[in-house]
């Protein structure tokens, strides 16, 4: 039930300097591995210190929900890399799976801080450095939840819709600086996060996890999850010279989702 690529896009990024938030786990690590495989120097952040030790990339512990940590991450990346050419805002959490009236203010706040505000704080710190380099790329991770309504996931969906607005606004602000800004909208990406969401939604619906998995992929025309490598390959494409005239776009990598459940 998993479709998609198994190997990184091949492109020469030798000498490029890339910062990836939440880059020691999941999609972030696959992106870090893929950029490094193409010759880029990579610096990552992550909230999980164990993952940072084992991920194979230089980085620092940072909580994306804290503005000071976001800024410290960018400062550390610039110091380690000697500058910056690409920022990938990948940090995010699934947020609560519950009807709106059951979501606590604390759950809403955490989801918006990590899934949306962290991108603002990282970009704000990185923009002067990208400008000094003569341009570059910012890639924000949104979601299929950023273009569809997403019942029982309102905080997450609100944040991911916000990422689209932030991306488009920033692309217009920074176009004259040759800084391209795009958003990637993953659909159901196979991994621990989607499995946890499926488990929670199955419990809420009173059905098995297998049935909820079938319902999840049934809304895609390709009837499959996408792979983490698919998302990484799109990031490589957008950051590279292949994407030199692509900016302000919200690009779905989602096995052609037609709706959410």
Q: Your description of this structure?
A:
By secondary structure, this protein is an alpha/beta fold. The protein folds into two domains: 17-186 and 227-247, NAD(P)-binding Rossmann-like Domain (Rossmann fold, 3-Layer(aba) Sandwich), CATH 3.40.50; 188-225, no CATH class. It is 45% helix and 13% strand. The protein is globular and about 55 Å long.
Topology:
Blueprint: E1 17-20, H1 26-37, E2 41-46, H2 49-54, E3 59-61, H3 67-81, E4 86-89, H4 105-132, E5 136-141, H5 154-174, E6 179-186, H6 192-205, H7 209-218, H8 228-239, E7 250-253
Parallel strand pairs: 1-2, 1-4, 2-3, 4-5, 5-6, 6-7
Helix pairs in contact: 1-8, 3-4, 4-5, 6-7
Q: Give the CATH superfamily of the largest domain.
A: NAD(P)-binding Rossmann-like Domain
Counting DSSP E segments of at least 2 residues, the number of strands comes to: 7
Q: How are strands sequenced across the largest beta sheet?
A: 3-2-1-4-5-6-7
How confident overall, as mean pLDDT?
Answer: 94
């Amino acid at each position: 039930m998993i479709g998609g690529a198994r190997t990184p896009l091949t492109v020469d990024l030798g000498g490029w300097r890339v910062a990836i938030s939440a880059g020691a786990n999941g999609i972030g690590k696959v992106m870090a591995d893929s950029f490094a495989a193409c010759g880029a120097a990579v610096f990552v952040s992550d909230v999980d210190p164990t993952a940072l030790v084992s991920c194979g990339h230089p980085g620092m512990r940072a909580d994306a929900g804290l503005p000071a940590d976001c800024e410290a991450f960018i400062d550390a990346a610039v110091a380690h890399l000697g500058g910056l050419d690409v920022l990938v805002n990948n940090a995010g959490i699934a947020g609560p799976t519950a009807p709106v009236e059951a979501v606590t203010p604390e759950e809403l706040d955490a989801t918006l801080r990590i899934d949306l505000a962290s991108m603002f704080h990282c970009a704000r710190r990185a923009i002067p450095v990208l400008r000094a380099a003569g341009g570059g790329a910012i890639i924000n991770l949104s979601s299929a939840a950023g273009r569809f309504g997403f019942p029982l996931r309102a905080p997450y969906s609100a944040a991911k819709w916000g990422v689209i607005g932030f991306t488009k606004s920033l692309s217009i602000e920074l176009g004259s600086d040759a800084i391209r800004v795009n958003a990637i909208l993953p659909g159901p990406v196979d991994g621990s996060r989607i499995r946890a969401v499926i488990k929670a939604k199955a419990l809420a619906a009173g059905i098995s996890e297998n049935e909820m998995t079938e319902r999840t992929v049934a809304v895609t025309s390709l009837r499959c999850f996408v792979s983490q490598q698919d998302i990484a390959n799109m990031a490589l494409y957008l950051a590279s010279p292949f994407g030199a005239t692509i900016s302000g776009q919200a690009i779905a990598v989602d096995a052609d989702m037609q709706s959410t459940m």
